[in-house]
Design goal:
By secondary structure, the protein is mostly helical. The chain has 2 domains: 74 residues, no CATH class; 75 residues, no CATH class. 66% of the residues lie in helices and 2% in strands. It has 8 helices and 2 strands. The chain has a two-stranded antiparallel ribbon with strand order 1-2. A hairpin with a 7-residue loop joins strand 1 and strand 2. Helix 3 packs antiparallel against helix 4 and helix 6 crosses helix 8. It is elongated and about 55 Å long.
Length: 172
């Protein structure tokens, strides 16, 4: 079973990714269900988790902010730099978990933010490198390693602080 802290982190990541258009609303509802199963509980979380897939696209936008607030988590408004950075960190964690290939991470980041978001500049540069690579395993492996190192750096950003804590704080 997932720990409450891990479930809160996953819900926070899904919320950030949804706010930036990276995942559908039904994924946020699934994360809310997982959070309930893991032991997190609040009235807003229960209401959010009760949404059907059909309701999610219409209801998540107004159910998510209070549910996160009740848990001491952060709602990132669409298009804000803090939300963009939270979404980037969530994508980096997804890549490290094996849900994205390194090139997919750089492509998605570069496509969405270009070279405009300071936090993602290195990933955008690495996406440019993928574009000019010769198709040799060694060259691709080297860029993959650099992307992985950058993803680790990004993933080490804001997380929940201590087990059982529900407040976001920067990682040491």
């Amino acid at each position: 079973m997932t720990s409450p802290e891990a479930a809160a982190n996953a819900l926070q990541d899904h919320a950030a990714l949804w706010s930036m258009g990276e995942v559908p609303a039904r994924d946020v509802v699934s994360a809310a269900c997982d959070a309930l199963v893991a032991g997190l509980d609040s009235p807003g979380l229960r209401i959010l988790a009760a949404c059907t897939r059909a309701e999610a696209d219409y209801d998540v936008h107004y159910l998510l902010p209070p549910a996160l607030d009740e848990l001491g988590l952060t709602f990132y408004p669409v298009a804000g730099e803090a939300g963009q950075e939270a979404a980037v960190r969530a994508l980096a964690r997804r890549m490290l978990a094996g849900e994205l290939e390194p090139w997919e991470l750089t492509f998605r980041i570069h496509q969405r933010y270009g070279h405009e978001l300071p936090l993602t500049e290195r990933l955008a540069e690495l996406d440019d490198e993928y574009a000019i690579l010769e198709d040799t395993g060694k060259a691709v492996a080297q860029v993959n390693a650099e992307v992985t190192a950058e993803a680790r750096r990004l993933a080490a950003g804001a997380r929940l602080s201590a087990p059982g804590s529900r407040r976001c704080s920067p990682a040491p």
